[in-house]
Amino acid sequence: MRDFRMRIRIYTGKRMLGPGKMELLQLIADVGSLSAAAGKMRMSYMRAWTLVKELNSMSRRSVVKLSRGGLTGGSAQLTPFGNKVLALYQEMERKSRK
């Protein structure tokens, strides 16, 4: 018997929400840093920053709030809307697996 995997992708015009962006959002929520989240995914900071910029441009409300670095380094956190987007996507995944 083959091992089947499910991957949910949501298309909005030419843009897409999928497992990679959702993993990035979850890691940002977990570690509070775009650089650290990118590192955990073995992704360049620039690629992660580009994905966040794309996510933030997909709706009128931002998904991630970035703060510039300095002596203590920058930070990243999900906005309340970003938390909702992530939670709804994860709920769709859970329900689809059933």
Q: Can you offer a commentary on this structure?
A:
This protein is α+β, with helices and mostly antiparallel strands. It is about 50% helix and about 15% strand. Strands 1-2 form a two-stranded antiparallel ribbon. A two-stranded antiparallel sheet has the order 3-4. α1 packs across α2 and α2 crosses α3.
Poorly predicted tracts of residues: none
Order of helices and strands: EEHHHEEH
Mean pLDDT: 90
Distance between the termini: 19 Å
Largest sheet: 2 strands, antiparallel
User: What's the total number of strands?
Assistant: 4
Strand-helix topology:
Elements: E1 10-12, E2 15-17, H1 19-31, H2 34-40, H3 45-57, E3 64-67, E4 75-78, H4 80-97
Antiparallel strand pairs: 1-2, 3-4
Provide the descriptors you would attach to this structure in a database record.
alpha+beta, two-stranded antiparallel sheet
In a few lines, what is going on in this structure?
The protein has 98 residues and is an alpha+beta fold. The protein is built from four helices and four strands.
